[in-house]
Amino acid sequence: MILIVSFPDNAHVNRVLEHITRPTTVFDIADFPSRTQLNVSFSGESTGVNFLSFTPPGLVEINLAEIGAVWFRRIRPIGLDPALTDATSRLFAWSESTEALTGLWHAMECFWMNPPAADEAGQRKIRQLQLAREVGLSVPETLITNDPERAAAFIDQRADGAVIRKAFRNIAEAPRSTAMVTREDRAHIDDVRYAPVTFQEFVPADLDLRVIVVEQEIFAAAIRSEPEYRTDYRLGIGSAEFSPHRLPDDVASALLALHARLGLAYGASDFRVTPDGEHVFLEVNPGGEYLFASDRTGQPVPQAIAASLERHDRDLAGAG
């Protein structure tokens, strides 16, 4: 059986489900513990781990020992019962529910895309850049700091328009796009003391790339944007031109090595291709989107994810 830990209205999940033929269950963490029961028993000589999911048309009971593959993708927060109104009680219920699920994940000795711990660690930009350099990928000159003096020196050592700033994570409450550092930004450089800022040398590029890795398969899409989106292609996706792209063999090998170091079976990376053909790595997102690229290039990313999950599920079934 294949378990998908995500949520039913996720377009990326739904597209993969179209290509899966083996028994599959989608578990939304937002249903736990208010609408989903978890029962784990250790008694006598038997060890039983059962996962009870209240999904239409009724109660579905899953023996975790029968799960051969898990796709862990963009989860929602735990859903506590609204009847639990006391703040301390809610905190305790959240803590206990989190501990139970975390323990459950570690008890499932099967194929994961991606293991939750690897998914969490793989999102950390400092670790990504450290490992990317170690495996031989080209990365931009970067400074991450909350020291205004160091930030000012990094900017002043480069020409106007040669440095960008970016956030670690683009949260909905305080959205920040990747942008060129302006003279106005430089004038407010003391604000860096409030929180670390990532400064990078701007990489002039002919193309941006969204590169999807599914185990050992690589699907690279070239994105040619309008000039006004040269610092962040995401803002101009609607008017951009997409086409399949082949990574140079050394870049492909280094990217797979990065995935191996991070423990990722899936990842969506962003690269820039400079006018002289250099492929510069920017970041990898362990749960990154692929449909905006695969739909416009025809690359079979959903099929590859489905095939990977089914292959590992069959391996477990065969071993049993």
Written description of the protein model:
With 320 residues, the protein is α+β, with helices and mostly antiparallel strands. Among the domains are: 2-114 and 310-319, no CATH class; 142-201. The chain is 31% helix and 28% strand. It has 9 helices and 16 strands. The chain has helices at residues 11-17, 87-107, 116-122, 125-135, 148-156, 183-187, 249-262, 291-297, 301-319, and strands spanning 2-5, 24-27, 36-43, 46-55, 58-63, 69-72, 111-113, 142-145, 163-166, 179-180, 197-201, 207-214, 217-224, 241-245, 266-273, 279-285. The strands form 4 sheets. It has a 5-stranded antiparallel beta sheet, sandwiched between helices. Strands 2-1-6-7 form a 4-stranded parallel beta sheet. Helix 1 (11-17) crosses helix 9 (301-319) and helix 4 packs across helix 7. The longest helix is centred in the first third of the chain and has 21 residues, at 87-107. It is globular, with a radius of gyration of 22 Å. Residues 53-57 have low confidence and may be disordered. It comes from Cryobacterium algoritolerans. This is ATP-grasp domain-containing protein. GO terms for molecular function: ATP binding; metal ion binding; ribosomal S6-glutamic acid ligase activity. Keywords: ATP-binding, Nucleotide-binding. Residues 129-310 form the ATP-grasp domain.
Shape: globular
Largest sheet: 5 strands, antiparallel
Strand order of the largest sheet: 14-13-12-15-16
Structural class: alpha+beta
What are the low-pLDDT stretches, counting only 5+ consecutive residues below 50? 53-57
In total, the number of strands is 16
CA gyration radius, whole angstroms: 22 Å
Q: Strand portion, in percent? A: 25-35%
Q: What percent of the residues sit in helical stretches (DSSP H or I)?
A: 25-40%
